[in-house]
Design brief:
Distance between the termini: 16 Å
CATH topology of the largest domain: Growth Hormone, Chain: A
Number of domains: 3
Structural class: mainly alpha
Strand content: under 5%
Order of helices and strands: HHHHHHHHHHHHHHHHHH
CATH class of the largest domain: Mainly Alpha
Radius of gyration: 21 Å
Length: 444
Amino acid sequence: MQALDATIVNTALPSIAYSLNVDPLQMHNVVIAYVLMVAVFIPISGWLADRFGLRNVYVAAIAIFTLASLGCALSQNYTQLIVGRIFQGIGGAFLLPVGRLALLRILPRNQFLAAMSFISIPGLVGPLIGPTLGGFMVEYATWHWIFLINLPIGILGLIFTCTHMPNAKLDNLPRFDALGFVYLIMMMVALTFGLERFSQGGWSLLAVLSILALGVLAGVIYAWHARRDSRAVFRADLFVDLRFRIGILGNIFTRLGSASMPFILPLMMQLAMGFSPLHAGLMMVPLVFGSILIKNFATKMIQRFGYYRVLLVNTVLVGLGIMSFALLDAHPNIYTQCLHLFAFGCVNSMQFTAMNTLTLKDLSKAQAANGNSLLSMVINVCMSMGVALVGVLLHLFEKIGVGQPTIWSFQHTFIILGAITVLASVVFRQLRQFQQQPAISTSE
């Protein structure tokens, strides 16, 4: 349900915009509201589950997500839809982390890997069918059904959680680091909101820069706080490992461009290339199929060539792949367009797998859960900031290119996003001093 909802809305955004009388190019907040709330509440998910019990928190998460989906479907205006997406994000923030924690707490260790592999299947199927299903529902029903589809799934989830999941909890749990959590929220919200204000306009440059500065300041204060408080949400000792630091930093800069592709591609296909919602959704299938297929070869590639070579070369390929979408409309037919998207899906998935495993591979058992939560938070924050950056660039090029066709703004946005990703390869140059021997395999 969560994996599906992260992608199903992308192909429906233009139709939702026309229905609610909103500019389609300003619909990025529908994506940002959801992804940002997921990022904000991931750090507290594990502590709440240990404090109040796995079943209680999971039931609450499913109920919030399902009711929020109903609220989104019943929205009569843009503001109501954003509020619904915010609550969807709050519920969604607990679904995957608490589900993984339930397996960790309950299953014998010899069954854990098999169980994790099994539950990763919905995470792959969701992005595969989400864009196409969203396009189909918009074209042959109404956009409201992309949210209503969650209701029967949510009800079944509530039933099975209540009847099958034990309410495991931990005793003598240390007090939650509420102050550090507030600093993290301030950082994430201020940075994303500041970028979003750039795209919307109406605020002075000084006000926007002040919001962004507040986000940076909150991050610096949190880093100082984490060094002093042993109860910090994300402990400072995580960053002692250089490979972890490189992995986190590389994720930040790479995902600013690549993580926004599921948002900007369907938007361009519909607004600039004249595709129907269903056609745009179907065009995303080769990209996701490439992402799934390459996972079988990613570990072998890393083992053969090492993280340094793979990430240095592949980061450049991802950046050039993003730039190449500026020429997507120049293809002679749909088949070469699909091949183009498939190839990008392959290099993009290789990048995510390599970055994720590099980040987590050398953490101790005591650090693993904390490091994984931080990585999950970074992934979602960068996704929200990447979508906000797309809004900024589209708005900027729309002003610069007055009289130009709509696709002109998209083409220049792809070039800038790709250039940022290419520059991220500089981060991975620091890996040259290590001999890479991958220890784990992580799928996204």
